[in-house]
Amino acid sequence: MSLTMRQTVRLEVQSLYIDHKTWLRDWLKWKLGCIETAEDLSQDVFMRLLGRSEIVTVRRPRAYLGRIARGLVIDHWRRRDIEDAWRKIQAAVPEQAQPSPEERLEVIEALVEIDRILGKLKPRTRTAFLLARVEGMTCPRIARHLGVSQSTVERDISVALRHCHRALANQDNRS
After folding, report:
1. Which residues contact 65 (CB under 8 A, 6 or more apart)?
2. Residues of the domain holding 25
3. How far apart are CA 175 and CA 171, in angstroms?
4. Is the CA virtual torsion 160, 134, 126, 68 positive or negative?
5. Distance CA 11, CA 58 (A)
6. CA distance 69 to 72
7. What SS3 string covers the chain?
8. Which of 4, 21, 121, 141 could disulfide-link 126, Cβ–Cβ 3.0 to 4.6 Å?
9. Do both 46 and 132 map to the same domain?
10. Does residue 101 contact residue 109 with C-beta atoms inside 8 Å?
11. Which residues contact 123 (CB under 8 A, 6 or more apart)?
12. pLDDT of 128-168, one tens digit each?
């Protein structure tokens, strides 16, 4: 009797989990300095593997698991930075104007998504876009600030806008 693809993936992940879960958790603890977060992220690694729809031949399991875990650690740190920035901004807001925990979570999730989308842009393009959209700077002023031509800034902002529109369209298609 042959196994289905799903059963094969599950057995493969089960084997990786049994053989490497302790190593992965300890490695993440060393990276993060927090056992609870290390436990959560190590579980996320295996959950991500269970979500695959294809079999992957893993020759070096620790390198493979470590690569997935590094990506999750980077995501964790980025989210933490966003949450810290949000807390600093909210510290200046009067208590009665503070958002509810649900609203706070929605804002953090939206900021994480925006960060993820903009994170795929080249640094200069992202900076030009943010200076225009967040700081309200004009293209000539951004050009002076970045030390590039105005046409370069206009092109960067155009690229960023197209990128954002594509990302939003892809989200609409997924939901």
Report:
1. 16, 20, 24, 45
2. 1-99
3. 6
4. negative
5. 13
6. 5
7. CCCCHHHHHHHHHHHHHHHHHHHHHHHHHHHHCCHHHHHHHHHHHHHHHHCCCCCCCCCCHHHHHHHHHHHHHHHHHHHHHHHHHHHHHHHCCCHHHCCCHHHHHHHHHHHHHHHHHHCCCCHHHHHHHHHHHCCCCCHHHHHHHHCCCHHHHHHHHHHHHHHHHHHHHHHHHHC
8. 121
9. no
10. no
11. none
12. 999 999 999 999 999 999 999 999 999 999 999 999 999 98
Same domain, 28 and 87: yes
> Quick one: 94 and 124 in the same domain?
no
Whole-angstrom CA distances from 159 to 120, 153, 163 are 12, 10, 6
* Residue 30 located in a structural domain: yes
pLDDT tens digits along 24-52: 999 999 999 999 999 999 999 999 998 88
Same domain, 79 and 19: yes
